[in-house]
Amino acid sequence: MQKRIKKSIICRGIDNFSVNNVLTGHLIPKVGDVAIFEIVKTGKHKSIQGEGYRNVTILPGDYIMAAFGTRYATEQFEGYVPIKCQRDFHILGAGGTVGLVHSAHSKFNDLGPTEIRIIGYAVNRLGEVINTKRMFLPEMSKFSGINFSSSKIILSVGSSMDSGKTTTAAHLARGLKNKGEKVAFIKLTGTVYTKDTDLVFDLGADMVTHFGELGFPSTYMCTQNELHDLYESLLKKVQIIAPDYIIIEIADGLFQRETKMLLTSQQFMNTIDHVIFSCGDSLAAMHGIALLSSWNIHPAFLGGLFTASPLLIKEVQENCSIPVYTIQQMAEGNLVAYFEQKVLVCA
Questions:
Q1: Direct distance between the N- and C-terminal alpha carbons of the chain, in angstroms, rounded to an integer
Q2: What are the CA-CA distances from residue 68 to residues 28, 60, 89 (Å)?
Q3: What is the DSSP string of 185-225?
Q4: Residues 265, 228 contacting (CB under 8 angstroms)
Q5: Measured on CA atoms in the order 338, 339, 341, 345, is the torsion positive or negative?
Q6: How many whole angstroms separate alpha carbon 69 and alpha carbon 128?
Q7: Strands laid side by side in the 245-249 sheet
Q8: What is the mean pLDDT of residues 278-296?
Q9: Which contiguous run of DSSP H or E holds residue 142?
């Protein structure tokens, strides 16, 4: 009996393929290359997000379809596509990003990553390795540097991974919807997995999309041109609903490679109407404001994990004049009037 292949979400839509196990002996994979892997040993990842968006349990001996990629996650793994031909790899992200772990947060020291072994590459009828990024090239647009839509674009950034960027974006979307606005959400950078877009959709956004829908297993180590083109392409994707507001989230903290690349790109920032900055504590808030200011970026308001503590809110308010809003205040929708004003984002 042929073993069932559990497809990860980054490989959704790949149906017409065959498995080439000869290439495994000499091919060095590229980002986006699709292959079939056997689960050798489960570690951190005991499930993957399947093509139907459901989390699918994986056990040793199971076969999965996944795509090579990179990962930057300070609370989880740092991983890369190998630079030489080999057979053993790791699951870097539950959405089907695989590669080699280079470093991991200490909380995974005992557990380790899930170990996998390549069975063969997924190839098309011409014998070419299927590549998720190449699949969506026809849908990619070149960056124009112009905000071509009538939507107001709000950028959600944070001091670090898990500082509250997505929660802020989700409650902001809810507040805008409560005031009758049409809202789209774009997860522009990160490692493919739909938890963030699912949350924003559940809280009210009319449409959500992310980089993975254009074939990127992750955006770590992308070039600036790739990021710009991806941004333009996702902006065009959400125009189908003619949103009043588009909320953009970029992953991780201000110093993360792609986040810093975008925030210091004048071409990118010129398309942004408002920036909201989420922080984990008061010190991160104050130093983050200073860093953003050095890049000539002026947040419209502050949010994030620190707003769960009245004492931390007080500390921030005593030391800066930027407004602070809790998720409850954002969800009420009273910020619509504020966003209708033209606020200076970049000096």
A1: 65
A2: 11, 20, 10
A3: EEE-SSBS-SHHHHHHHHTT-SEEEEGGGGT-SB-TT--HH
A4: yes
A5: positive
A6: 18
A7: 207-210, 183-187, 245-249, 152-158, 274-278, 301-303
A8: 97
A9: none
**pLDDT (tens digit, 9 = 90+) per residue, 34-65?**
999 999 999 999 999 999 999 999 999 999 99
Beta bridge partners of 67: 34, 97
pLDDT at residue 104 above 70? yes
What is the pTM (predicted TM-score) of this model? 0.95
Distances (CA, A) of 135 to 9, 78, 128, 250, 259: 14, 26, 12, 23, 25
Rg over CA atoms, the chain: 21
DSSP character at residue 233: H
- By C-alpha distance, which of 168, 163, 187 is closest to 246? 187
pLDDT tens string 176-187 = 999 999 999 999
Contacts of 165 (CB under 8 A, 6+ apart): 156, 157, 158, 249, 251, 278, 304
Residues 13 and 67: beta-carbon distance below 8 Å: no
147-151's contacts with Cβ under 8 Å and 24+ in sequence apart are 147/270, 147/271, 147/273, 148/235, 149/235, 149/239, 149/243, 149/246, 150/242, 151/184, 151/242, 151/243, 151/244, 151/245, 151/246
Length of the chain: 347
Q: Residue 255 and residue 2: Cα distance in Å, rounded?
A: 47
Q: DSSP for 271-338, please give it.
A: T-SEEEEE-SSHHHHHHHHHHHHHTTB--SEEESGGGG-HHHHHHHHHH--S-B--HHHHHHTTTHHH
pLDDT digits (tens, 9 = 90+) for 122-176: 999 999 999 999 999 999 999 998 877 789 999 999 999 999 999 999 999 999 9
Cα separation of 216 and 207, whole Å? 19
Residue 159, CB-side half-sphere exposure with 13 Å CA sphere:
20
Question: Would you give the DSSP letter of residue 257?
Answer: H
The amino acid occupying position 20 is: N
Phi and psi torsions of 298, nearest 5°:
-125, 105
Tell me which amino acid residue 191 is. T
